[in-house]
Amino acid sequence: PEAITVQELAKRMGERGADLVKALFKMGTPVTITETIDQDTAELLIEEFGHRINRVSEADVDIDTSTDVDPADTLKPRPPVVTIMGHVDHGKTSLLDAIRGASVQSGEAGGITQHIGAYQVQLPDKSKVTFLDTPGHEAFSEMRARGANVTDIVILVVAADDGLRPQTIEAINHTKAAGVPMIVAINKVDKPEAKPQKVREELLQHEIIVEDMGGDVQDVEVSATKKTGLDKLLEAIQLQAEILELKANPDRAAEGTVIEAKLDKGRGPLATVLVQRGTLRVGDVFVAGASSGKVRAMINDKGQQIKEAGPSFPVEVLGLSAVPSAGDPFTVVENEARAREVADYRKGVLDKKRTTAAPVSVENMFATHA
Ligand code: GTP
Ligand code: MG
Question: Which residues participate in GTP binding (predicted)?
Answer without folding.
Answer: 86-93, 133-137, 187-190
